[in-house]
Specification:
The chain is α+β, with helices and mostly antiparallel strands. 56% of the residues lie in helices and 21% in strands. It has a single domain, classed as GIY-YIG endonuclease (3-Layer(aba) Sandwich), CATH 3.40.1440.
Length: 99
């Protein structure tokens, strides 16, 4: 499974990315081994994610995320909180990171 995701950084910015292992990537971001952008903005927290069958689909969605204004990204985050599947995915990844 591949994912496009949004992270809330410590400076309140929102980072968009994609991965094939959400928990591993979240851990890498928080350890300073993720994207250069997030290294100085730790800790980060997963706030939104979408699952895709192929990496190409996830990468396309990541590009769409990056073109969105902050308000539009926040709308996605709010919508994800109301979707049980999305909320479960986010909570599982964040819980694993807390361990």
């Amino acid at each position: 499974m591949n994912y496009a995701y949004l992270l809330l950084c410590a400076d309140d910015s929102i980072y968009a990315g994609w991965t094939n292992d959400l928990q591993k990537r979240l851990h890498a971001h928080n350890e300073g081994h993720g994207a250069k952008y997030t290294r100085g903005r730790r800790p980060v927290r997963l706030v939104y994610a979408e699952a895709f069958a192929t990496k190409e689909e996830a990468q396309r969605r990541e590009c769409q995320f990056k073109k969105l204004r902050r308000a539009q990204r926040l709308s996605l985050v709010r919508a994800g909180q109301n979707d049980p599947h999305t909320r479960a995915l986010i909570e599982a990844a964040n819980a694993a990171e807390q361990e």
